[in-house]
Write a structure and sequence with these properties.
Nucleotidyltransferase, domain 5; Serum Albumin, Chain A, Domain 1; mainly alpha; 3 domains; about 5% strand; 5 strands; snoRNA binding; about 70% helix; Nucleolar protein 56; Helix Hairpins; 5-stranded mixed β-sheet
Length: about 575
């Protein structure tokens, strides 16, 4: 059976045919001895085809696909074009040797090409990698080195890229610093207590808090200077007026020794340093809370910020924690006890860092192991949601916390908890509703913004119109004069119409003396004229009667009316 070798270089894909394996030997040791000799190795392996990458971006994409065990379309077309095609219904009489077994399995699943990845194939590919520039004449050593260097930088840069808002390394550093600050503040505050107790030993019994003790040591400095006037200031520091009075009375009857001013100044400065450290510790804790809500909101809402950060730091990263099984997560932080128990064949530990959670403290002694196992299960679910989900939400963590509370009630009272499937469905529904509400709010905001813009434009246009109307006073006066003239013309027209009507009546009285036939004809004509066919025609006739077309026609009508009167 023929053997082909697939070699992925920084400049492109290479396909080699191992046709003379019998000359160098079919064992791994024989191949190792012949790899260094190019003349001997060149007789066993020859180049069949080479497909260079089109650009650096293409090379990076191909490299990422190979590292993830995926066959790209370019690699598939390259193999199908250059490998011999088997006959239909028959198996291939060759096999393809690859370095990555995942790539080989994917190639065989998709294309049906038989692939193998064993020690013999890897030794052959090691020889191909060593003499690759000799097989391709046009490729120089410097070009290959440049391609390897550029691809290596781009590949590592792409792997290092991350989301700035989800940097779990910052959480790891913050929780380490928080632990060291707790140790340092405790040791420094004990040193302040011991140092100032030589001067004012009674203050230790009155004030138990380290931060308040350092604050009081800075304020008091010298106990002999304390008086009743300092009680309000002491009450502000301590928060209790009775304690302030007690401190003043104890200072008056104190058994401590007097210190020199230089010693008191040093004590005061050291107390200020302790106060600064404790304040910085508070700020660091707030920073840790915000980062944990950004990186792992579900894990934070389930188990708390500090315990969740300790789990992430112990696992190394959030992705490592998500890959851990629930049983591994349960005993994180108790590795020494686990290996001791395995060595001595004793009982293995039930919990590690999870023990600091409030749920295990609330459980009874016989149910602590059960509670730790159940809580580790929910923590693994929450860490996987935080690691692989694109949208950051704490809905799932809240629902998982409710499940843990229900399990506690089940252990104590026997109340049956909800199933995990129902809880996850409810979480998904609430998440969808929240997204819909956010979309509606955004749409309302957009519409309100558009309306406000329209109102602004309308007010601007109205203001422009008012500005245009202001200088038109002269035009308004001219318009008023025009209306007065029109009214006068209408009055003249009405008077003329009344005169015409009087003339028409006079004509009617004169024509009554004529024969009855003429009367009938004229009456018909008058009725036809009096009754127009439509309302519009009637209006036209009235206007014609009221307004003579010319001044000459009006004079003629007047003359006729005078003659008729005569």
């Amino acid at each position: 059976m023929a053997l082909y070798l697939l070699f992925e270089s920084a400049s492109g894909y290479g396909l080699f045919h191992a046709y003379g394996i019998d000359e160098i030997g079919q064992s791994v040791e024989a191949v190792r001895s012949s790899v260094l000799d190019l003349d001997r190795f060149g007789k066993a392996v020859k180049l069949t085809a080479f497909n260079p990458f089109s650009s650096a971006v293409d090379a990076l994409n191909q490299c990422n696909a190979i590292s993830e065990g995926i066959m790209t379309d370019e690699l598939r077309s390259f193999l199908e074009l250059n490998l011999p095609k088997p006959k239909e219904g028959k198996k291939a009489k060759y096999s393809l040797g690859v370095v990555e077994p995942k790539v080989g399995s994917h190639i065989s699943e998709v294309t049906g090409i038989p692939c193998q990845s064993n020690e013999f194939v890897q030794e052959l590919l090691r020889g191909v990698r060593l003499h690759f520039d000799r097989f391709i004449n046009e490729l120089k050593d410097s070009d290959l080195e440049k391609a390897q260097l550029g691809l290596g930088h781009s590949y590592s840069r792409a792997k290092v890229k991350f989301n700035v808002n989800r940097v779990d390394n910052m959480v790891i550093q913050a929780i380490f610093l928080l632990d060291t600050l707790d140790k340092d503040i405790n040791s420094f505050s004990m040193r302040v207590r011991e140092w100032f107790s030589w001067h004012f030993p009674e203050l230790v019994k009155i004030v138990n808090d380290n931060y308040l003790y350092a604050k009081l040591a800075k304020f008091i400095v010298n106990k002999s200077d304390l008086a009743e006037k300092d009680i309000p200031a002491l009450a502000d520091i301590v928060g209790d007026e009775d304690k302030a009075k007690e401190i003043v009375e104890a200072a008056k009857a104190s058994m401590g020794q007097d210190l020199s001013p230089v010693d008191l100044i040093n004590v005061q400065q050291f107390a200020q340093r302790v106060m600064n450290l404790s304040e910085y510790r508070k700020n660091l804790y707030e920073y840790l809370v915000t980062k944990m809500n950004d990186i792992a909101p579900n894990l934070t809402s389930l188990i708390g910020e500090v315990v969740g950060a300790r789990l992430i730091s112990h696992a190394g990263s959030l992705s490592n924690l998500a890959k851990c099984a629930a049983s591994t997560l349960q005993i994180l932080g108790a590795e020494k006890a686990l290996f001791r128990a395995l060595k001595t064949r004793g009982n293995t530990p039930k919990y590690g860092l999870i023990f600091h959670s409030s749920f295990i403290g609330r459980a009874s002694t016989k149910n602590k192991g059960r509670m730790a196992r159940y809580l580790a299960n929910k923590c693994s679910i929450a860490s996987r949601i935080d690691c692989y989900s694109e949208a950051s939400t704490s809905v799932f963590g809240q629902k998982l916390r409710e499940q843990v509370e229900e399990r506690l009630e089940f252990y104590d009272k026997g109340v049956a908890p909800r199933k995990n499937l129902d809880v996850m469905k409810a979480a998904i529904d609430s998440m969808v509703n929240d997204t819909l509400m956010d979309d509606d709010d955004n749409e309302k905001a957009d519409t309100s913004a558009k309306k406000s813009k329209k109102k602004k434009t309308k007010t601007e246009t109205d203001g422009d119109a008012m500005d245009v109307d202001k200088p038109s006073n002269v035009a308004d006066g001219e318009a008023e004069l025009g209306t007065e003239k029109k009214k006068k013309k209408k009055k003249h027209k009405l008077e003329e119409a009344q005169e015409e009507n009087g003339a028409a009546h006079a004509n009617g009285d004169a024509e009554e003396t004529q024969t009855p036939k003429k009367k009938k004809k004229k009456s018909r004509e008058i009725s036809e004229e009096a009754e127009p066919k439509t309302a519009t025609e009637g209006k036209k006739k009235k206007n014609e009667e009221a307004e003579p077309k010319t001044a000459t026609e009006g004079k003629k009508k007047k003359k006729k009316a005078v003659k008729a009167d005569e």
